[in-house]
User: Fold this.
Amino acid sequence: MNLQERIKFAIRDVPDFPKPGILFKDITPLLKDAALNRDITEKLSDYWSKVEVGVIIGIESRGFFWGNSLAQALGVPFVIARKMGKLPADTYTYTYELEYGSAAIEIHKDAIAIGDRAMIHDDLLATGGTAGAVAELVKMAGGQIAGFSFLLALEFLNGKEVIQKYSRKIHYLASY
Assistant:
């Protein structure tokens, strides 16, 4: 099996989570497979090593898993983007609309330097709302968007179209 097939085989589908009608793609089984975990990091690293990346931002919380590993592999800093109120120091905050309300996400004000080329990583690209919000935080801090990285993309939700205004460099390992 190739890597995409291995990822999709390991993903657990959870119906009606977090609400009725949603088929949740649970990535936690991937974390139990050390070889697959390593191969995911290597594949992401192979791709992003050819792009000028100065910092990687992992989106809470599943973006932390491979985001930090990827930052280590590339030898760049790792920054976290969290829900509002979860970071202890001064933050940039961006509020955005979801299909069921609004949300706010933050990064520390000292996380991104002016001109830093930030790559934004998360486990899943769906509608693109959260990734786009983090891109706005990077802009607030004076950084540039190097690109977006995901394990999975739900292509039928068109999130790629939402975030490509920030960067055309959008990479994922498997799609539905």
Q: What stands out?
A: The mean pLDDT is 96. The chain is about 30% helix and 35% strand. The longest helix spans residues 34-48.
